[in-house]
Amino acid sequence: MQAARPQTQAAATRCRKATIVRSTAAPATATKLNTKRSEEIFKEAQELLPGGVNSPVRAFKSVGGQPIVFDHVKGAYCWDADNNKYIDYVGSWGPAIVGHANDEVNEALKAQIEKGTSFGAPCELENVLAKMVIERVPSVEMVRFVNSGTEACLSVVRLMRAYTGREKIIKFTGCYHGHADQFLVQAGSGVLTLGLSDSPGVPATTAAATLTAQYNDIESVKALFEANKGEIAGLILEPVVGNSGFIPPTKEFLQGLRDVCTKEGAVLCFDEVMTGFRIAKGCAQEYFGITPDVTTMGKVIGGGLPVGAYGGKKELMQMVAPAGPMYQAGTLSGNPLAMVAGIKTLEILARPGAYEHLDKVTKRLISGILDAAKETGHAMCGGSISGMFGFFFCEGPVSSFEDAKASDTAKFGKFHRGMLEQGVYLAPSQFEAGFTSLAHTEEDIDRTIEAARTVLKSL
Ligand SMILES: *Cc1c(COP(=O)(O)O)cnc(C)c1O
């Protein structure tokens, strides 16, 4: 058996949304793109908002250059403050799966606005969305709506602890579960016992209760359970990683996690904030046929409004207040506007051909980009599942964050800038997955592949 390997600080967990890797990529040379307004607005923003943004990765720190300031979005496209148009593969980081500013979602929202945007009291729309989630997601028998993925994940850890009476949790290097204290942790060399925080402000005692293992390495998980007998409340993971680039799991790995959690009496959580309703109608758990005990959701489930959710077996969910003693609340949770956007989005996704479309366009995109890299002599590996994809500038294969770090991030920075100039908006980091939507056409995909070929040739 391979014990949890000693890790250097650099090789350990990286919650990259808290600690941005600054790329050495020089901002692109001779830019044809006019970004005058973007630059003016961002300059002012830096005096008003920390780093000029309200969420770190938007600031383009890991690709170099200035962020593009958006003006409006529609379907598969976004327009910036200088009126440049881009084919968008970020989709607001996942929610825009039926296309930006979808007419049907917008109509439903307009109708709801007339009836009020927040009640702070029960409304039937909560039941409607809850029934859709329960019907689709294998592990969910009861659900609690919150306002973000972060909130869903931090609540689920409290639930794991309340249910088991244990304190330690296991996460994986490179997996992101929002910015709550207990997730901003890297293992350092003390992987078996002590977690060290990635961010100042996280109490050492909180960090110490978070253990980290390596993705797709079941032995590293078993070693943690062995060294912390009877102390692990639960384990949380991205069932397909998107937050250190696109990294799929092996089915054996997921099955191994299911088995070890059952054996050790620990709660298994699939964090499906990114993969939920994107990988398949019943989320990644349906796609892989492995059922966790609890599931966190976000992004797609809010259809572009702020929503998160967590759910699981009734036995567990009955622990949550006011049914049970575990406290968790929210003034705007389950608000009718957010519920309406989620309901309409899930309704559109249930129509025949929706996931087939996502699968088809995304496969075409990633195989086109990989072919273009091969033709132009660049080492690249990548893949996709349904409407989620990613590629790395390295030979691969990439099966964990440790592998992903072999990627040439300086080259990615130049590629990213080149693609912007070609009218394609990619996530501004090598360590992010990309997203397609029902609005992306084969024509959009082919234009994107042509753009990639042009840029790759120039690198
Ligand atoms: C985005 C994300 C989160 C955090 O959700 P927010 O809504 O940004 O708080 C948590 N887990 C995963 C897997 C995510 O992709």
Automatic annotation (TrEMBL):
The keyword Isomerase applies. Its EC number is 5.4.3.8. One of its GO terms (molecular function) is pyridoxal phosphate binding. Pathway: Porphyrin-containing compound metabolism; protoporphyrin-IX biosynthesis; 5-aminolevulinate from L-glutamyl-tRNA(Glu): step 2/2; Porphyrin-containing compound metabolism; chlorophyll biosynthesis. Its cofactor is pyridoxal 5'-phosphate. GO terms for biological process: protoporphyrinogen IX biosynthetic process. Belongs to the class-III pyridoxal-phosphate-dependent aminotransferase family. HemL subfamily. This is glutamate-1-semialdehyde 2,1-aminomutase. The lineage of its organism: Eukaryota, Viridiplantae, Chlorophyta, core chlorophytes, Trebouxiophyceae.
